[in-house]
Every structure is written in structure tokens, then in C-alpha cells.
Amino acid sequence: MRQNQVGGTGAVRRVRGSAAVGAVVAAALLLGACGSSDAKGGDATTTTKARATTTDPKATTTTSGDVDDLHGAFVSSEVTGYDLAPDSELTFTFDGGTLSVNAGCNTMSSGFSIDDRVLAWTGAPAATMMACDEAHTAQDAWITGLLTKGMAAEGLDGGATLTLTSGDVAITLEAVAASPLTGTTWTLESTIADDAVASLPAGAASDPPTLTIDEEGIVGVFAGCNRGSGTVETAGTTLTFSPIALTKMACTGPAGELETQVVKVLDGEVGYTVEGDTLTITNGAVGFVYRAS
After folding, report:
1. What spatial distance separates the first Cα and last Cα of the chain, rounded to whole Å?
2. What integer best gives the mean pLDDT of the chain?
């Protein structure tokens, strides 16, 4: 089996149809809530523990024409000039000409440019539709405002550390290593339908579905109610699942509905990407975002 590892987190959270990501619910309301892009939550420094790093993010230059060369995921190790919401961090994922950012709740995605070492989104970002508390909603608006205005960037030439600054705000990001496709327990975090990303239903979130793939291509599935197994073949950016044989426990409510989606998505040839600790699988207009656990 051949693994496909693309960059480092997300949380992907960025959505792909076969090979393309796009969590595509327009974020005009989010942008309208941003106010000044230099707004601060406070002057304290919030530091989060950096994850395992990789020292080989692809390099880019300061010209906007070379943004396709920048790949990988980076997670915040230090933020000054703004108090992050408790137990949260910032994750930046570069894939070709797209930058996705997760600030602890929703993921915002847009094309980006790098001109004179200023990193900025080139359009209004699309956003997922998670319900966020007040602190995370404000945090989404804050980082959206900064990247809409543009942030001075250092470390774009292939280093493992990326530093972004705007006014009194400084964000230090470290490259994160991609979790291996095989040998990892992947826990379902959100669902994809018609290019929109949603959190798991409340009745299923306490015991979410999981997926494991071993080196021999044997698949283990907890579908939300029943458990099962099958096989999978890897080729490039696709996985091809055999029919998953599940146990026969009767399932009702949100867990049963989610199990029906699992069976639908993990069927036949699907597109997939691994970015940091996030696995995204898409099967036509539906899909899943898993997190390594």
C-alpha cells in the first residue's frame, strides 16, 4: 500500500471533491463582523505546545505567482497581542493557491497572495458552518480580518517556522508532520454534503465513528452503532474500499442516521487527502473529515 500524505493539519477541515478542497459556504457575514483587523483580545501572550514538526515545507518566494509552491500545515506555538480562546490554537494549511485557517471552531478558506512578503487572502473566504461560542466566533472574525488586510510574513523560504505580524499582533507557527494514513485511529469530526461542512449531530458526537487502516489494507470501522471491516487499495489520491461488512445491531436516531452516511461514503473509489492530523475523504457530493486520535 502506498500512503498519500499532503502537507501537515486541518483541519481540513478543508473540503475536497475528489482532489480539491473547498469548505464553501460564503463568509460574508463573518467578514462583516470583523471590524478592524487589528482588534485585540488583550495584550497577554498565549502559548500552545507545538506539535511534531517536519523540516521540509515547500519553499515559495515573495511573488504571488509562486503561491502554488507553498504546501503544508502550520500550528501556532505562540501568539502575542491577542488572547486566544482557552485551549485553542491557530492552524494554517497551505495547498497550492489556497490557504485554510482554523482558529478553534470554523475553518475559513480562500486563495492567497504573497507580495513583498505580505501574506493576504485574495477574496472573501468560504467558511464551514459550525456553531461556535462567543469567544471562538470573535476569534474567527479576528483572524479573518488580519488575513483580509494582510500580514507581514517571515519564513516563507522553506523553514519550519512561519512568523506573521500585523500591528501589535505576532503569530509564530510551526510546521506539523502529517499523520500516517495507516496505523492511525481516525475519529470522525465533521461531515460534508453538497460542499458544506457540518459538525456531528448531538446524539452521535459523544461516541463518534472511527476508521483504521493497517499496512495490509485491512479496514476497521466503527460506524456509529455497528462495527465492521473490509479492505482498501490506495492509488495516488484515491482509496478504493471493498463493501464494509457490519454487525447487525438495530440503530436508530442520530447514530443510525450517521451510520447510513458512513456506509455511503466508505464505498468504492473515493478521494482522500491527509494534512497534518486531518484526513478528508470525499465520495461525490458527500464526505467526511477525520482527526487523528
Report:
1. 22
2. 79
CA distance 65 to 45: 34
223: nearest Cα among 193, 198, 186, 196: 186
Cell numbers describing residue 196: 458544506
Judge whether 16-175 and 186-292 match in fold.
yes
The DSSP 8-state label assigned to residue 144 in this structure reads H
- Enter the DSSP assignment of 282: E
What single letter denotes the amino acid at residue 128?
A: T
The listed CATH number (2.40.128.270, 3.40.50.1980, 2.30.29.170, 2.60.120.10) that belongs to domain 186-292: 2.40.128.270
Distance CA 293, CA 283 (A): 23
The domain spans of the chain are 16-175, 186-292
Q: Are 175 and 72 in contact (CB under 8 A)?
A: yes
| pLDDT, tens only, 16-44 | 333 333 333 333 333 333 333 343 444 44
For residue 96, give the DSSP letter.
Answer: T
Beta partners for residue 152, in sequence order: 118, 165
**Rounded CA separation 84/44 (Å):** 9
Q: List pLDDT tens digits, range 44-96.
A: 444 333 333 333 333 333 334 466 667 788 999 999 999 999 989 999 988 87
Look up the pTM and report it: 0.63
The C-alpha angle 278, 54, 61, rounded to 5 degrees, equals: 100
Cα 96 to Cα 21: distance, rounded to the nearest angstrom: 11
When computed from its CA atoms, the radius of gyration of the chain, rounded to whole angstroms, is 19
State which fold the 16-175 domain adopts.
Lipocalin (2.40.128)
